[in-house]
Amino acid sequence: MADVAKVAGFSAQTVSRVLRKPEGSAPHVREKVLEAVRATKYVQNLAASNLASNRSMTIAAVIPVISASIFAETVQGLSNILIPAGYQIIIGHTDYQEDREEALVRSLLGRRPDAFFFIGTRHTKATKEMLVQAGIPVVESWDWVQKPIDQLVGFSNRRSITEMVAYLKRAGYQRPAFVGSIREGDDRAESRVKGYLDGMKEHLPSEQPRTLVVDDLPYKMSSGRELLRLAREQYPTCDAMMFSSDLFASGALLACQALGLSVPGDLAITGFGDYEIARELKPALTTINVPSVQIGEEAARIILLRLNAIRSGTPETRVKAKKVKLSYQLMVREST
What we know:
alpha/beta; Rossmann fold; 3 domains; 6-stranded parallel β-sheet; 4-stranded parallel β-sheet; 12 strands
């Protein structure tokens, strides 16, 4: 930092101030300091700064899988708000395994993040205890529970599928089946199964529920083809298939075309998530639109609100935890 100060022509204290709060410095001072940083190839020792300020300026995001584009959209939402505020995001994934999440949280806590963000609301007892003991903001997301660890941004997976059943009945379908490959620990997909059972009981009480749920197929579009085959074998009179995700629904819809089955003439197909491909398929896919980016942005906002309040010395009793319930949307398209 002394080298940067010498090149810039300012004191080391001025350089430090610019690097800590660039928006609080005069434009000409900021530009000269940043030019000197580039010229000297200076890299700030953040570990030392963090120890001094008790702030890491990092947020830990724990997600189920990295490969799912819809979860990437939520992380993008976090980034939209957190990065302009000076925070960086550390991402860890659990592969839907609670014991792996527990080990991941323990490891991340050792890096002293300022807050945690989770996609999911189910954790081991030890994970919950570690997070409570850490005393930092925690935001869970992507579902709706009555007693979150701290803060919550989500929607009801369960109710969304109940609404889909109601729509299918109005559209004239009487024998819908719920179809999916659900990994152990995927509590959101399990909520969708419960939503289907609720919907059948509420809207089609004279029909026996039809569910085909496996746990050994990968999260790939090609799995939709296999799920379609299994479901048609098990429920040959089914007139609509409600897939647990758009990825499986898209694979099934394309398989129907290869088999010469008309969608929706011979079989209606619905998905969940409103992925980009859902709108591009022919016929386009009826699905549930999830506010994936908005979840991340709302979570980031309430994290910043809490952190700013805590750092301003606001009494903890006045820093209230928030629960933000977002709306999903039934997207009716040509596949039904």
